[in-house]
Specification:
single chain; alpha/beta; about 35% helix
């Protein structure tokens, strides 16, 4: 059930850190999964949750580097997961389900941005497949251990302002644009949270999406220095030039807030930014603040869910359906 995009007045803001969000909160006995929880924002999310007492499972494509990254953090385990490979997604979910422990927080954090054209699976565009479809399949597979009270938090981006779902060419078969592909994938992330919350809220599954802010992380690995200078992120010497960029600790704060804040009890299907619920965006103001109406449109969310379910059904993977 989607609620109105109305800021709550959380008391936090753009410069709040993940640690500040969790100050005084005891997460002992809670279990969280963080995809990509060993790098960038994911690592800061993992650190903050673990320091507050949660047990964290880091889902990582490369387990050796993940284990090295989290070596000094107590209460964290690493499991292999390649979101671009549905066999890997199924294997990861099977291992989690075999243990049978309830998951309190699933933070769908991992992703790729503005990469060269790549095809995965049966020819799917890689950003849509990795950022959206992989998490879509993972969440549906994990439903048995999410039911009864869980928050599913999916990291989107203000980049969703650049494109709705391109129904005429979702897989970019007619010509590839790396930024439009990224934007569509991030719109899909927001719509996923809308429909997941509608389908899951009666069983205690609440879903949120978010824009973490602009942060320098490994997500920019596919961008050249010239591109980042052209965007105003770096100056001509390659040094940071945009004062609106956050630190990684600040960038992780909204995901941690969405996963834990009592302000969100009883709510769901919302897009958040700067540790609060975001307002609806003005479609032509150019600020990229708030959420575009097409990204929280229930009809678009239902259409995308059906499309995604059909894609993963070819791999004999389940998806929740409306009663």
């Amino acid at each position: 059930m989607t609620n109105n995009q109305t800021p709550l007045g959380s008391g936090f803001g753009a410069r709040t850190t993940a640690g500040e969000v969790l100050d005084g909160m005891d997460l002992s006995g809670k279990l969280a999964i963080v995809t990509g929880g060993h790098s960038g924002l994911g690592l800061e999310t993992t650190k903050a949750l673990a320091r507050a007492g949660a047990t964290v499972i880091v889902a990582a494509r490369h387990t050796a580097s993940a284990m090295a990254a989290i070596a000094d953090i107590g209460g964290v385990n690493v499991e292999q997961l390649d979101l671009s490979n549905l066999d890997s997604v199924r294997s990861f979910a099977d291992r989690i389900l075999a243990v049978g422990t309830h998951i309190d927080m699933l933070i769908n954090n991992a992703g790729i941005m503005a990469c060269p054209e790549m095809r995965v699976g049966p020819g799917w565009e890689s950003q849509f497949a990795t950022n959206h479809l992989g998490h879509f399949a993972l969440t549906n597979l994990l439903c048995p251990v999410l039911r009864g009270g869980a928050r599913v938090v999916s990291v989107s981006s203000a980049g969703h302002h650049l494109s709705p779902i391109r129904w005429g060419d979702v897989q970019f078969e007619l010509g590839y644009d790396k930024w439009l592909a990224y934007a569509q994938a991030k719109t899909a992330t927001v719509l996923f949270a809308v429909q997941l919350d509608r389908l899951g809220h009666s069983e205690g599954i609440r879903a949120f999406s978010l824009h973490p802010g602009k942060i320098f992380t490994p997500l920019q690995r596919h961008l050249t220095e010239d591109e980042m200078i052209g965007a105003g992120w770096l100056d001509e010497n390659g040094d940071p030039a945009d004062p609106s960029f956050k630190t990684s600790e600040q960038g992780a704060a909204t995901a941690v807030w969405a996963a834990t804040s009592p302000n969100l009890d009883g709510l769901g299907g919302l897009y958040c930014e700067d540790c609060d619920v975001a307002g609806l965006a003005e479609s032509d103001d150019g600020s990229m603040a708030g959420v575009r109406d097409y990204a929280v449109d229930p009809k678009e969310a239902e259409r995308l869910w059906k499309y995604s379910a059909e894609l993963i059904a070819a791999f004999d993977l389940p998806a929740m359906t409306a009663e």
